[in-house]
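User: Hi! I'm working on a homework problem where we have to compare a predicted structure to a textbook description. Could you give me the structure for the chain below?
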Amino acid sequence: MSLGGHLDELRKRLSYSLLLIMVLFIAFWGGLGDELKELFMAPHLIAVEALKHHAPPIDVSAKLTLLSPLEDVFYTLKVCFLSALLVSFPFLLYQLWRFISAGLYKNEKMAVFKYVPFSLCFSLVGIAFGYLFIIPTILEFLYAMPNPDLVIQSYRLESYFSLFMLFTIALSLIFQLPILMLGLGATGLVSAEFFAKYRRHFILGAFVVSAMFTPPEPISQLMMAAPTIILFELGLLLMRFQKKKK
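Assistant: Happy to help. Predicted structure tokens:
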């Protein structure tokens, strides 16, 4: 295609994608707003319920605080938009592939088919792992820290959602580590022996990076660093298997 042809193709793909996102967003906003808000608040509710079984029980309100009349409106907008993105993601990925595939050679297309599906699977596993386990556990620990005799625990909706998104994005990126290691190994830039040699440096780096994405307390940092180290070992194992297969 000419440059104009590429721009026309890009505009067409973007139009299809934005149209689907808009339709889903309006549908979610009009009929599923409350359900989606509860879905995104589930880790908080799980943590609050778990605190009731501590000895002694810790009483934290399941209701989050609003400090602005618009705060709940913006929260609803965010969850509906994110849900629309998530549901439409396969279609968005297909539109992206239709745009870029025309400019790829056969071996480049094979590389995409080889790595992208696994990359998506690892991202989804990371998001689910954080939603079901990591985020509720960290919230439970953080909610149990304050002394109820000294402070009243009342947590803001906006602060919770920011923390939720921070952990979700961080875990989806961290779970890409085995794919990144496999890709580097396939290009010949690094080898499994190289990663094994610098294993201790990576473990230290995992704790440093986890400290950047978590609150300043050790439990959250450990719960973020531990999966990273496990994924590193998985990537190392896959690289060795890849080399043996070749």
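For your comparison, note the following. The CA atoms of residues 100 and 199 lie 36 Å apart. The chain has a mean pLDDT of 88. Good luck with the assignment!
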